[in-house]
Structure formats: C-alpha cells, structure tokens
Amino acid sequence: MSYEPLIRPAGEADLEAVLALNNASTPDVNELTLDELEWLAGVAHTFLVVGAAEEAIGGFLLGLDGPGVGYESLNYSWFSTRYERFIYVDRIVVSAGSRGRGVGQMLYDEFSTAGRADGHDVMLAEVNIKPHNHVSLRFHDRYGFSPVGEQDTDGGDKRVVMLAYPL
Q1: CA triplet 157, 42, 96: central angle to 5 degrees?
Q2: Could you tell me how many helices (H) and strands (E) the chain has, helices first?
Q3: Is 70 left (phi over 0), alpha (psi -120 to 50) or beta?
Q4: Residue 29 predicted with pLDDT over 70
Q5: At residue 4, does pLDDT exceed 90?
Q6: Which residues make Cβ contacts (< 8 Å) with residue 52, sequence separation at least 6?
Q7: What is the bridge-based pairing of β-strands 158-166 and 7-9?
Q8: Domains of the chain
C-alpha cells in the first residue's frame, strides 16, 4: 500500500494538533503558545497541514510574506532588512511517522508555488546550526537552498544559518 499524504490548508480545528506537534519538536523550532500560533495563522501567507480532517496531523508548514507583517522574530527581521520581497518559512514540522515519505518536499513545493503565483522570487528559511539540526540542513541542501548568512539567537544559545531558494 502506498503512502499518499493529503496536503490541505490548515483550519481552526487543526490548531491544537499543530501546537502539540510544534512544541514536541523543540529545539528544532521554537515553542509557541496557542495565542502565538493563532496570531501567526492570522498573518500567514500559507498555512498547510498534512492529513485528512479526521486523521492525526502528519506535519505542517507555516509561511509568511515579507517584509511587513509585524512579526517580532529575529530571523524574520534579519531577512526583512536584506530582501525587498520574499516568502518566509517560519516553521515546518513533519511527524516521526511521516518522515522519509516526501512530506517536507511536498509542503515546500506547495509553498513555493503559492509564492511564485503571488510574484515572489525568493523563499527564505533558517536552520539551527547550534544545536545542529542535521536532518533539516540536509533537506534544505537537497532542496536547493543556499546559505546567505548566519546569526546568533536566544542570547547565543542558538545559531542559525540563513538560507535562500530562488523561485
């Protein structure tokens, strides 16, 4: 039996499951409160989940337009001062049971298609290099992202590599 994930726009009913998956994935992504997730969902360019409504969420991608959404993220701000117009992967998480099945690739493909359709020419993301996120770095390299800088966050407890992918 083949695995064919369903990718669909996230809805309000998905927020609790997305929050749980997000917060179980720290430090690869920053922990969120429900209020923070609701705010991000409200300003998102693209918010996708993997799985039918009655299934457990197998992953999600939350992406923003940039610059100008008023997001107080150091990484979003870094990109906002260097790029006139972009789409930004704020967070992507794929559940352990959905990894290795092309889910991340499909989520990025959907986001990049939506961004291109809106006239964007670059997709931006960052990945932890302290602590080192080997899986995400390998994924972004295979997808075709290129490093464009680095910065420390969380008072130096984290360091990220800033990545760009031409649309």
Answers
A1: 55
A2: 5, 7
A3: left
A4: yes
A5: no
A6: 6, 8
A7: unpaired
A8: 7-166 (3.40.630.30)
- The answer to whether residue 96 scores a pLDDT higher than 90 is no
As a residue count, the chain comes to 167
Report the alpha-carbon distance of residue 1 to residue 3 in Å, rounded.
7
Number of CB atoms found within 10 A of residue 112's CB: 21
Site of tokens 């994935």: 25
Write out the DSSP string of 62-112: EEEEES-S----HHHHHHHTT-SSEEEEEEEEE-GGGTTTTHHHHHHHHHH
**How far from the centroid of its chain's Cα atoms is residue 65's Cα?**
12
Instruction: Place 52 in a pLDDT band, splitting at 50, 70 and 90.
Output: low
Q: What percent of the chain has pLDDT over 90?
A: 78
Structure tokens at 103: 């889910």
The answer, as to whether pTM is greater than 0.85, is yes
**Residue 86 pLDDT:** 98
Contact (CB, 8 A) for 72 and 43:
no
Q: In a 3-state reduction of DSSP, which class is residue 43? A: helix
**What is the number of alpha carbons within 13 Å of residue 63 lying toward its C-beta?**
25
